[in-house]
């Protein structure tokens, strides 16, 4: 069977005026093969492997399937990496490579999704009008101040429409810092959007914005929105 590079070379040399006899001599091929590459390239060398041989994984396929099935049942943070699964197989006598296990796992997951009827993931685009909403959250950052390492709390506010950000660092995350961050951010943006989107911050829910309309439960793990009158 000719490889693609050889077929391409045969076509190129023949198109340049080189005789079939000369091409066959230079490439050490029969004239029949050269003619086939020139005259019927679409059908003559089309090859698709129907059965994927598993010389190394074969004896351990059932065990690998069980490990993958068990791994899928774990929580996302508790799942084993493919390197760990490969190591478990090696301890049981498997002498194949990590890449073989990784490729098999990829095919296993693809077949599993196909059997479950899962298609391509769908996404709902989120659009906002100017001044409609902002997002607010905290992050922890390690910095060096006066030569000493310190962890600071950083307030992040971002307009949902323009994605314009405002960031300010504080020594801790508290109610007064939350007030100050909002006041400075609104002054920086030159106005107050109609609603804010938060990610379950107790300082914002129970202490600062008590009594306002919360679209979702404050104890929900999802994001919730707050209307500002």
UniProtKB/TrEMBL annotation:
Protein name: Transposase
NCBIfam families, per database record: transpos_IS21
